[in-house]
Amino acid sequence: MVIDHVSKTFRLPHVQYSTLKERVLHPFRSTTYDELHALNDVDLTIKQGEFFGIVGRNGSGKSTLLKCLAGIYKPNQGSIQLNGRLSPFIELGVGFNPDLTARDNIVINAVMMGLSRKEAAESFDKVIAFAELEEFIDLKLKNYSSGMAVRLGFATAIQVSADVLLVDEVLAVGDAAFQQKCFEEFNRLKAEGRTVVFVTHDMSAVERYCDRAMLIERGDVLKIGEPHAISRAYNELNFGRLVHETDETGRYGDQRACEVRDAWFENEQGERTGEIAQYDRLTMCAQIRFHEQVVDPVIGFSVRNDVGHTFFITTTEWQNVPMGTFEAGEDVIARVSVDAVMSPTKYTLTPSIARDGGADVLDVREDLAAVYVHGTRVTGGLVDLPHQFVLERRS
């Protein structure tokens, strides 16, 4: 696949007429446009059998590039040379008719991808089994949930014996079980030497599966190279700010007796950080101010990953930390240190304070701070616990 200095621009009108009356009243008013440069001089060669990752923030041009590769968009400048059969999984619902059943859509979509009607019919059972939609094959697609539609679309795409597979954010909608099936499918594709172009925000998947990766920002290619280096660059671009700038998602408690004023992560040097290497020492911190006397408060920390799974919870009550009495106007900074054995991704910190053994919640601030753990080696699972292999050979 050769992408030769490709650029793509969209025209965005300033004023749009939505009714016939408006057009009649303003017949000579010209429409002015802004230009959105979605891709700027993208120059890239992807080798046969390569698993290539494309990463970047929302609106950076990732999906536009994939649509150019799939022939949905025509570049304004440059050219794309693609050898072999292409199977795209680009956008939720693309290529499907919402008024047809899953049964009809599978066959039609497979034929559109180059299969004969016989081949499409033979692949039907495999698609349904992978998507786990046996009970819904005669349901119209417009009645499917987004997760069901993603499973159907990806299952259809991978059943085509294609030379090149384009995959856009397949891991963003599916549940954990479907994501695991996708990972198993990625392993199969790599083992078969298929060429895969993979767009994702999951840096652990990039480091685990990709041979090379590219970071794109506002249509410009910032870097192409080894997956770990691209993951680090994406991390610096996306999570380089201080953690206290992270958007808080919820707050509970009346905060009259005390409140959580701030929360952050620290590295081994005691510095605030939004990034840390896997296996380094990581400290969770929270600043609490008391507005009235509180006896034996319970301070807690909860850490969640980027898909909302709780990774770690601890409280002073569980750890039998002696607390005592805190007076009005007093500040306290609570710290908990752990080894960052979690898998590479973004994690958020929810600090809390309560009394009466945790029964009376005074203040909880969800996702108040964030840190990005970047990988230092290939891992899998939610955590990478310290371990060693021991082999005992017997004849």
UniProtKB/TrEMBL annotation:
Cytoplasm as UniProt keyword: no
Keywords: ATP-binding, Nucleotide-binding, Transport
Domain (ABC transporter) ranges: 15-243
Gene Ontology terms: cellular component: membrane
SUPFAM superfamilies named among the record's database cross-references: P-loop containing nucleoside triphosphate hydrolases
Protein family according to the UniProt entry: Belongs to the ABC transporter superfamily.
Name of protein: ABC transporter
